[in-house]
Amino acid sequence: MENKFIEEWMDEIPEYPKGKQIHPENEYFLKSRGVDGRHILVAELNESLDLTDLPKLAGISLDLQPNNNGCLLTLTLEDSENLDKFALICFNIAQRTATYSGRNLILHTVKILNSWSKLFSPSRSKISESELIGLIGELFALERHLLDKLTPSLAIRAWIGPEDAKQDIVADNFAIEVKAHHAGFSNKISISSAEQLDFDKENFFLYKVDFSPSDLNSAVSLTSLRDSIISKIETSNEALSEFVFHFNEKTEKADSQQLLSSYILDTESVYRVTESFPKIHLANIPSAIISDSIKYSLDVSCLDEFLLKDTLKDLIDEC
Questions:
Q1: 178 and 109 co-located in one domain
Q2: pLDDT for the residue 90
Q3: DSSP secondary-structure letter at 77?
Q4: How many Å apart are CA 205 and CA 317, to the nearest integer?
Q5: Structure confidence at residue 106 (pLDDT)
Q6: Are residues 274 and 187 part of one domain?
Q7: Domain count, the chain
Q8: How much of the chain is in helix, strand and coil states, percent to nearest 5?
């Protein structure tokens, strides 16, 4: 994965003010070299902006200086040992700011770098067991089902989903709410918000997957699922940079033991969520009840009429 981005920085790169476009849809960011030969990412902008509190990343510096009638934004690699991270971050910035220009491009770049700076120094304070199993379930669905039927870009885009989406996976023609549990708690499904199942989508699936702790070779962990997903999407720079960013963001607080904790699949089942599926409807909640406070559980034994025989990957294929 690291070499995928490094290779593009190993070609002959001209010295600034010349440079090479790093992303085909972003005309502003150029990869170049400073007068001292160090790798830099630069963007010349027509608008000026004065920012003093810039993000700090180990081995990488960010600078914003006046330039003619605008400003010059420069990201410099201070330590060549960090070229892998630098190359990934630069591509991710260019990719995620492709629709911006001027002031908005600068502000969005700083926002992205602030996120990356947290990921460079993760807190590793530990996540709850339910969060860990939940992430395992999401990544398992992505690795075993979505990536078998969708292109890397479509699969990763669905996993990330629209901003503020309440469902785990949202594509143009289907949505999936993933519910992962420890084996032995298979008689119920915990719903953490009223919006989770009250979603207007023709192909909306509830994917219930149960895991048991295991040391078997076939067991999965956050780390093994990450590596497997990367191997399946490495042909797409866009999918790869987005996946690495969001995986790191989701696992920022997981400690080293949790990253390696392994689980074996116990059971998996898929339900079709229709209008008649037992769920709380937002429209029926009295105004005096705070909808954000609603949590409830479903009795699995009462969901047989919504249980599907097809696997999740087959259902995705049919959508």
A1: no
A2: 93
A3: E
A4: 13
A5: 87
A6: yes
A7: 2
A8: 40, 25, 35
For 257-296, write each residue's pLDDT tens digit: 999 999 999 999 999 999 999 999 988 898 898 888 899 9
pTM of the predicted structure, to 2 decimals: 0.85
Same domain, 114 and 139: no
The mean pLDDT value for 238-244 works out to 92
Q: Are residues 167 and 57 in the same domain?
A: no
> Which amino acid, one-letter code, is at 208?
K
Q: Which helix (H) or strand (E) holds 89?
A: helix 83-96
Domain end, chosen from 120, 154, 170, is at 120
Given a cut of 80, is residue 124 above it in pLDDT? no
305 shares its domain with 177:
yes
What integer best gives the mean pLDDT of the chain? 90
Return d(Cα 61, Cα 1) in angstroms, integer: 23
Which among 116, 122, 1, 2 has a CA at the least distance from the CA of 60?
116
Grade residue 83 by pLDDT with cuts at 50, 70 and 90: confident
Same domain, 234 and 155: yes
Which residues form the domain of 227? 129-318
What one-character-per-residue DSSP string does 96-147 give?
HTTT--HHHHHHHHHHHHHHHHHHHS-------HHHHHHHHHHHHHIIIIIH
